[in-house]
Amino acid sequence: MSTTGTSPVSGVENLTTHAVVTGGGLNGAAGRTKKRLTRPWASIASIIIAAVWTIPTLGLFISSFRPRDQILSSGWWEFFVNPEVTGENYVTVLQAGNTQLTMLHSFINSIAITIPATCVPLMVAAMAAYAFAWIDFKGRNALFIFVFALQIVPLQMALVPLLSSFSRGINLFGLQVTLPLGVSGGYAQVWIAHSMFALPLAIYLLHNFMSEIPSDIIEAARVDGASLGQIFFRIVLPLTMPAIAAVAIFQFLWVWNDLLVALVFADGAVAPITKLLAEITGTRGNEWHLLTAGAFVSIIIPLIVFFALQRYFVRGLLAGSTKG
Description:
This protein has helices at residues 10-22, 28-37, 40-64, 68-73, 88-94, 103-134, 140-149, 155-168, 188-210, 215-223, 228-256, 260-265, 273-280, 290-298, 300-308, 310-319, and strands spanning 170-172, 175-177. By secondary structure, it is mostly helical. It has a single domain, classed as MetI-like fold (Orthogonal Bundle). The chain has a two-stranded antiparallel ribbon. Helix 6 (103-134) runs antiparallel to helix 11 and helix 6 packs across helix 13 (273-280). It starts with 9 loop residues before the first helix and ends in a 5-residue tail after the last helix.
């Protein structure tokens, strides 16, 4: 029972803090998993996999500084035999564009598309996952299975119906509802498309993490008189931040590197950088060597996001990996 002048969830917040700091409950499984992953054989295997995984990236980086003729006529490893460096590929990529779009504008478009398309589905998915995990309502299990099953629906199947809805409206019970989004309606239709495609997986991942929060913490908050909103914002949400950060990184990278949705919904002056890079390679890919430089121009922002949230990303993956 809470005392006078004390927040009803303050004691519970101290309990959750103690659980995280001491490694009990929430972080116990993560600690055991981390111990297994730090064994010598696991470290050696990780180094080998990282080295093999880095080789293509190294080749791409070297090729981005090689002259066009050498890229088209020989492999990147030939650089060590006949080293020749040029910045022409980067100059061409940075100067690329058309009457509606330049490289700088497409870069800004990618940021304007990716940030809302990451934040909106995460907010909705967090609330939905909380409801599925800790709120008992009729049909909860059936609805969660339905949401989970939406992950198997191919993305391509939804593109044409979604585009049709944006351009012509939706028929709801005989009432024609016209959305304020034309075929070239700007960023809004891209945000909606990415959010819809991201919700099933985001809800599933966050639900798995939230359901592992000890029930004693939730019950203690309810006994202290905390409402559903207080439990969500002051207890569940802070404890779920590692998982939210992990899902945010995945969603950010998916949206930033997306080309399919951009080709359908992001047209004209709102096209992202991936679409512009696809255009400068030529209709038959005859200028594919420019992608070597374009790839490193486009990964600047994702690298910043990943390194900024790296510690949350690792904690989110480990904390949701096992139970215990």
